Amino acid sequence: MSTLIKQDILVELLANAGTGFEQVRVAGKEAFQAQGFPTNKSEEYKFTAITKKIEQRIQNFQLAGAFEVIAEQVKSNVFEGFEGDVLVFTNGHFQQALSSTVEGVEISPLSEKASTALGSIAKPEKDPFCALNQSSFDGGVFISVPKKAQIQKPILFLNFFKANAGQVIQPRTWIEAGDFAEVTFINHSVNLSDTSYFVNKVVEVKGGVNTQIRYYKLQNEGENAIEVSNIETDIQKDGRFTSVNISLSGEMVRNNLSINILGSNSEGNMYGLYLLDGKSHVDNHTNVDHTVPHCESNELYKGILAGSSRGVFNGKIFVRQDAQKTNAFQQNNNILLSEDAVVNTKPQLEIWADDVKCSHGCTTGQLDEEALFYLQARGIGKEQARGLLLYAVAGEVIEHITDESFRDYCIAQVQERLGSNF
Amino acid sequence: MLTIKNLHASIEGTPILRGINLEVKAGEVHAIMGPNGSGKSTLASVLAGREEYEVTEGEVSFKGKDLLDLSPEDRAREGVFLAFQYPVEIPGVSSTNFLRTAVNQVREYRGEDPLDAVKFLTLMKEKMKLVEMDQKLLSRALNEGFSGGEKKRNEIFQMAMLAPTLSILDETDSGLDIDALRIVSNGVNQLKSKDNATIVVTHYQRLLDYIVPDFVHVLYKGQIVKSGTKELALELEEKGYDWIKDEVDSKATV
């Protein structure tokens, strides 16, 4: 049984979360109180003892709050060759002065006008951390891409984190895109302190008819990161949402990614890579909800685990009775490079429609020795052959990133990791 | 070039090779034949350095070096090439990228400058013709979704790219239709020179109509029990392996 006293935590968190959003926060608080922190009996958090980790590491439960960064820090953390616009955040607080303005896109700190929207997609009753964030979020951004806007260059969220041990960071993001809009977001975080703090973020993305939204996320905040992230999107008719999530480190990271397919002829894509060593623990829970006919979802998550790292994959696909002619594909492949690395993988398909094409598969194994020998027999050194094979696994996910500079950055990060620790 | 003396090898404690002796000189083509399970593919694998096999006795010298002492990659860099019986499909690794890495690592080992992209492509185009390789195949992942014949052609194409001094073809003919067999053999023949040697491991004589051997050896129960010229292969084709088995087994009982 958890020893965390949820009432007290909320009081503490709320004490400095700022004013406003009263109704939203009350709804979040009620939803959190109804659920509480997940225990070891919670099915959804069975393999990820996040509550225990929070108890160990997060004692004072204060919000870390905004801090200042300088333009140089921003510049040095943007990928080489990146041509898009940069939005700067410190502990989740939008730093407008350091951020670009994106032509044709409304970007502002979260304000009351978003208050009716917050929680309408990422519903607080579905997840305790989503509820906790809604009760006491601190900082965030509101983005509105107007109808028919074609935002050619990607928008980079550059998140700087700096916190004392035991502090909490709770950003909230609301993104809405009008009909026929097209936009790409890249989420990248930079950790400025090596303390253990807790990031609990929620991102809601509201698509319109025929919108094309890409959302890429790179997690490489280091060995002390404790993070829960809830990203949820509603896709409308003819729309498409593509997520690429790459996790390279973290003491304990939980990603909840949900796509609600609400309009016909739309498509949801989820690609993920977790490349872990040491004691990192990364848990990806994904959820696709097909509610209407003639839609498609594609999902590919790949894991490479060394040391005593742990990966968790849980992929839910719901195909409702009305969602005839659905094509839903899911694949999770893992390579374990050490005896102490562990993967828990669970595909979960619930299909009520009778005219659908759905497939899922998961594999967990070692590096293919026969392939390794084949490469060596052609004169390629063992270490390089290993790197080539592992990179091939990772590449199948990375290739879905359309922005070249970000893709190159990810490739470099992954290759560096495969060269040094694997 | 290659001298094998009293080579014994086993897998998981089971002896497969029980004293192989073989001498291969530059410019020669040797065929190694034998019934299933006689150790043909094991011999090819041991020479290429496959780790599952344990050499328990004997020695192999290649161009004066102790071959068994070298890692698989160093054997390749020294000029040993094994055309796999079952080429491996490697998703996510592009054929071109793989070949360029291989060619340049071999060159580096030999103290040569790496090939730049242009020179590499030129070389590739030239060698592709040799086995009538379709350029489209090379833009795909290594062997992924290739037909049996395409995989074998790709082996010979890789061989052409790496220009080995000793090529070991492990049942390269198995599963090939006559057209593919002709293309593959033609490639091998064009790569032959007075400075390199070829060991052809095969169960059937058919391949030897196209790649004509100077010597034919019959492997049985892990030993070379008979050696001869290409006529021996024809005799085997006609009479099968039983007479050789009988000959060997009756000697053993005496």
* Percent of residues in β-strands of chain B: 25-35%
Low-confidence stretches of chain A: none
Tell me the radius of gyration of chain A. 21 Å
Structural class of chain B: alpha/beta
Write down how many β-strands of chain B occur, each being a DSSP E stretch of 2 or more residues: 12
Number of strands of chain A: 20
Strand order of the largest sheet of chain A: 2-1-5-8-10-12-14-16-18-20
Which blocks of ≥5 consecutive residues of chain B have pLDDT under 50?
Answer: none
Taken in chain order, the helices and strands of chain B follow as EEEHEEHEEHHHEHEHEEEHH
Structure summary:
Chain A is of the alpha/beta class and 422 residues long.
Give the SSE layout:
The complex is a heterodimer of chains A (422) and B (254).
Chain A (H helix, E strand, L loop, with lengths): L5 H10 L6 H14 L14 H8 L13 H6 L8 E6 L2 E2 L11 E4 L18 H9 L3 E6 L9 E7 L6 E2 L2 E6 L4 E10 L6 E9 L5 E8 L6 E10 L4 E8 L4 E10 L5 E10 L4 E10 L5 E10 L4 E10 L7 E10 L5 E10 L5 E9 L3 H8 L5 H17 L5 H17 L2
Parallel strand pairs in A: 1-5, 4-7, 5-8, 6-9, 7-9, 8-10, 9-11, 10-12, 11-13, 12-14, 13-15, 14-16, 15-17, 16-18, 17-19, 18-20
Antiparallel strand pairs in A: 1-2, 3-4
Chain B lengths: L1 E10 L2 E11 L4 E5 L6 H9 L4 E10 L2 E2 L5 H7 L1 E4 L6 E5 H15 L7 H14 L4 H4 L2 E2 L5 H15 L3 E5 L7 H14 L5 E5 L13 E6 L2 E6 L1 H10 L2 H12 L1
Parallel strand pairs in B: 3-10, 3-11, 6-9, 9-10
Antiparallel strand pairs in B: 1-2, 1-4, 4-5, 7-8, 11-12
Helix pairs in contact in B: 2-3, 6-7
Write structural notes for this entry.
The complex is a heterodimer of chains A (422) and B (254). Chain A is an alpha/beta fold and 422 residues long. Chain A has 8 helices and 20 strands. Chain A is globular, with a radius of gyration of 21 Å. The mean pLDDT of chain A is 93. By secondary structure, chain B is α/β, with parallel strands linked by helices. Chain B is built from 9 helices and 12 strands. Chain B has helices at residues 40-48, 72-78, 95-109, 117-130, 135-138, 148-162, 178-191, 230-239, 242-253, and strands spanning 2-11, 14-24, 29-33, 53-62, 65-66, 80-83, 90-94, 141-142, 166-170, 197-201, 215-220, 223-228. In chain B, strands 6-9-10-3-11-12 form a 6-stranded mixed beta sheet, sandwiched between helices. Chain B has a 4-stranded antiparallel beta sheet with strand order 2-1-4-5. In chain B, strands 7-8 form a two-stranded antiparallel sheet. In chain B, strand 4 and strand 5 form a beta hairpin. The radius of gyration of chain B is 18 Å and the shape is globular. The chains are: A alpha/beta (422), B alpha/beta (254). At the A-B interface, helix 6 and helix 7 of A face helix 2, strand 7 and helix 3 of B.
